[in-house]
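Data deposition worksheet. Section B asks for the primary sequence of the deposited chain exactly as it was used as input, without tags or linkers unless they were present during the calculation. Section C holds the resulting structure in token form. Section D is free text for depositor observations; keep each observation to a single sentence. Incomplete worksheets are returned to the depositor.
Section A, Depositor: J.P.
Section B:
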Amino acid sequence: MFRWLAQMLRRGPEPSPRRRPVPRLPRQAEEAPAGEATLPDGMDPAFAPFAGVLGVAPGAAPPLVPEDQDEDLRVAALVLEHFQRNRPGPASAPSLSLQILNLVANPRTGAADLARLVQNDPALAASMLQVANSAYYRGVQEVESVREAVARIGVEEAGRVGGALAAKSLFSARMRQEFAAFSARYDHLFRRSVAVAAVSASLAMKTPGARSDRAYLGGMLLDVGKSVGLRSLSALLVDGKVALAPEDPRVDRVLERVHLEIGGEVHQEWNLPQYLTVLCVRHHDDAIPGDAEFRDLHVVRLVSALEDLRRDPAAAPHAAAEVVQSAAALRVDPLAARALSAELRTAEERVARTFTVEGRAPPAAR
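Section C:
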């Protein structure tokens, strides 16, 4: 499975034609500075200034009864088993399918036009990188951005890849059925990934040593394990092997349990650049070094944690510590964090207005 990721590693990704495991750092406790004893619900004093300006007070979720814990573990095991047996390649949700097909059909489409649209879909972006880094196209250096991928394989070939994948999502009855099972959750994952990617790229442009192209793709593919895990969960639901309503909170709990393992494996399976794998498997580490080589990881981790807090603080117990650590590494103060949170809201509202899913406009972001 994915247990090799638990081995020690203190170095970041290095360009190399060979794929290597990307282990996670050992867990280590963070020392919180002394603070007021009156902080609500045992809040980390280091997070208190952020909580004040963000207007959030994350607390622990109510403990689950043993029966719910057992059922969560059972469903998570089924999802992992289904993933291991099927191991899907990237597949685009129908969100951009028609736009991609229309763009590919236009003979005046250029590399920049195609790259601009493709990078807004995690599955299409992953597919382009996978093809560009395949044995057939691979050059001396690993391709790390969609624009580089389109330039390497050519607009015509990139158009075929994007068009084929888009058509697959549109015309596969099985895939349409699976997407329909949790369509609102696919909508949310899509909007979240695009918003986190856009704001991560914006923050990277203001951060010395960070790269906006890496931050953008990192934001898009950070939680790909959740979308792939949701595909397995959808397939299990369609096959009658699990019974979950779309709004059941167990769905989120199960995806949270499996997304790092699935995400790391699909990053390796799809031959994605190693820096993306590092971002995927380590963004929930208890502690990440503040070294320059981890700058992009801190950028995406901070933005992702702020989005989790903006959405549902109670469901993101890890987010407060991640905000504190990554904000310190990037020298982002609480007021700047509030500006990023506002930028996330605006970005997600823009995504909701711009893209449609299954022929309907997704609901506006909260």
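Section D:
Residues 66-88+173-354 form a domain with the Hypothetical protein af1432 fold (CATH 1.10.3210).
Residues 103 and 109 are 6 Å apart (CA to CA).
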